[in-house]
Design goal:
It is built from five helices and two strands. The protein is mainly α and 201 residues long. The chain has a single domain, classed as Up-down Bundle (Outer membrane efflux proteins (OEP)), CATH 1.20.1600.10. It has helices spanning 7-20, 22-43, 60-63, 81-152, 158-193; strands at 49-56, 72-79. It starts with 6 loop residues before the first helix and ends in an 8-residue tail after the last helix. 74% of the residues lie in helices and 8% in strands.
């Protein structure tokens, strides 16, 4: 089995999984959102200041002597002290969230890599078992044929022929199970990497 393992092929499978696996895409998108939140929070400094202006037509004092107003444009600046004090903590929290997202992405990558390795090794194991079952099935078929030929020439008993036939049937059943297990291991690996193994070069 060990001789059938290809670490360069395994690296290709891991890279393919990182490109195709939905969990990897979710982690990438979370990183993008966390990075955007840092920028958004930094720009929040601008919300500390509010600039307002008013335009009052020049009506003069004679128009309303009870409430005299200045005519023309008037500017006003307000400072939001609460936001001013809160913003550094908001930026720090956004940076912390970005770091958490980075760690989560690293954990996702490591987990995905481990899962690909586990499923690849399981697939190689099932292929090795399938090879053994194929050989055992072929050996059982050869033995049954030899005993059948000997029986026809009077060199083997009917009990030996029946026993060999039962062994051949049993080996064929094991072969079917081994094929099914190999296909299941292949499907499980393909589900994780997001494409068929035949598409990997």
């Amino acid at each position: 089995m060990v001789s059938d393992i290809s670490y360069s092929y395994l690296d290709t499978l891991i890279a393919t999984a990182k490109r195709n696996n939905p969990q990897a895409h979710i982690a990438d998108e979370q990183m993008r959102i966390a990075k955007t939140n840092i920028t958004k929070t930094k720009i929040g400094w601008l919300s500390v200041l509010n600039l307002t202006y008013f335009y009052t037509p020049s009506t003069g004092y004679a128009a309303n002597p009870a409430t005299p107003t200045l005519g023309g444009y008037q500017l006003g600046i307000t400072l939001n002290v609460g936001t001013l004090l809160q913003n550094p903590y908001s930026v720090k929290a956004a940076r912390g969230q970005y770091q958490i997202t980075q760690f989560q992405q690293e954990a996702t990558d490591l987990n995905l890599e481990a899962q690909v390795k586990i499923k690849y090794f399981a697939y190689i194991e099932e292929l090795a078992l399938l090879k053994l079952r194929t050989k055992s099935t072929q050996d059982a078929a050869d033995l049954a044929k030899q005993l059948n030929d000997k029986f026809l020439h009077g060199q083997a008993s009917l009990a030996d022929c029946n026993s060999a036939s039962l062994i051949e049937i049993e080996q064929n059943q094991y072969m079917i199970v081994a094929q099914n297990d190999a296909f299941a291991a292949k499907a499980s690996l393909e589900e994780l990497i997001g494409t068929k193994l035949e598409n990997i070069h």
